[in-house]
Amino acid sequence: MFDKIIKYITDINKWIAYVGLLLMVALVFCFSVSRTIGVPIIGDIEIVQFLMAVIIFASLAFTESTNSHISIGILTEKFPQSLQNILGIIGKLITLVFCLVVIWVFIQKMEYSTTSLLLKIPLYPFKFLLVIGFAAWCLELIKKLFNKKFID
């Protein structure tokens, strides 16, 4: 049951990232064409930066669920399996603590009046999405710890 709920949350985040990526590709194409014909769109870089944030934070949990985060095992792959498991647990716990600190800091420092410089887009929805993305990543980490999947 817990695994299904986490998978559902991860899938929602994944689709938010997919839509953000599709939207970013379409907008970059439009912005490029408009610049080429001599009619640049004001705030195009700001919009793309916001979409990059959406893509990155919405894809964190999916990346964890597919074991796609970067890991280098040149040294640790030569260790005994039990030591690899211990190091895997330590790594997951450190990542979990990091995610919880990021969530806590962004919730504590949430300002609803801050806007972007050029287009005056409010920043709080994107900060809220950051909190959701890191929370989903936390859930994926907790799921792996309970399912004893310590090594990617």
From TrEMBL:
Pfam families: DctQ. It is a multi-pass membrane protein. The chain crosses the membrane at residues 12-34, 40-62, 83-107, 123-142. The keyword Ligase does not apply. It comes from the Bacteria. Residues 24-147 form the Tripartite ATP-independent periplasmic transporters DctQ component domain. It is found in: Cell inner membrane. One of its GO terms (biological process) is C4-dicarboxylate transport. InterPro entries: DctQ, TRAP_DctQ. GO terms for cellular component: plasma membrane. This is TRAP transporter small permease.
